[in-house]
Amino acid sequence: MNKRMITVGARGSLLSVAQTEGVIRSLKRRFPRYVFTLKRIITLGDTSKTWSRQDQGIFVKEIEEQLLNGQIDLAVHSIKDLPSQIPPGLNLAGITKRADPRDLLVSRDGAALGDMKPGALVGTSSLRRKAFLMIHRPDLRVSDLRGNLDTRLRKLNEGQYDAIIVAAAGIKRLGIKGFKGKKISADIMLPACGQGALGIEVRSTDRQMVRLARAINCPRTYACVCCEREFLRRVGGGCRLPIASFARMIKGNICLSVMIASLDGKISVSLKKTVPVKKYLVLARELAEQALAKGARRILEDINNG
To answer: Taking phi first (over 0 means left), then psi (-120 to 50 degrees means alpha), and beta for anything else, what does residue 39 get?
Structure first.
């Protein structure tokens, strides 16, 4: 009997390919009667050097177009790349178990964040990471650093930076060894919405692909990430703004911590609340309204108009 071919779409970066291959292995174990093939798709974010902080979906638009057109059967994304609003006709049907959501400081001398020398140059293109650095280490210099994870590590090794900040999950998924890294506590650098999580996107009407995605879905991660994404959607922010949103399960409850900061770290709004798990969307909306009322709206307006 011929096995049905399932085409899985994803970005072509080393990290995206490694992540997607992991998802495909999980699907193969549960659905051995299918043949899964990876299709690498080039996105605007992979080719353009001129995108701005207001741009959304630059790492997923072309993938979602191929999904809608039937050129691929399902897509695997880093949740951080996904805009908080999914296009009509598509469904975020599954989110795999979350990896370590923390940020990682990789330096040439192995120093932790608190031990970095004043004036040290830290590379990151994340406005969230920049803002948190300015809050906790305003004596450091921060410079833009774009490119895939392997490119960022190469620039560090070449001496262009004293340290860089990356996602701990990415380093682990690529199996990179021989670097000097220190994980940054979430109490110091609250993770971005969806950091460490992978999403499975399918066409809403494709019941078979919805079933496949749900088979590898982690319910705890799904609830936490959807809570984070709802907060992001309600405040009107994107993944490239200095917004942190991180949810955790605690004894049958869900705890959401959020923070929105100005680029210089001098003004910030920080909130945290725990509720029963079933109220995770209500929690996200409540904290979004409170954050906007406490000054987050002004912070985001200033950044977008700057």
So the answer is: beta
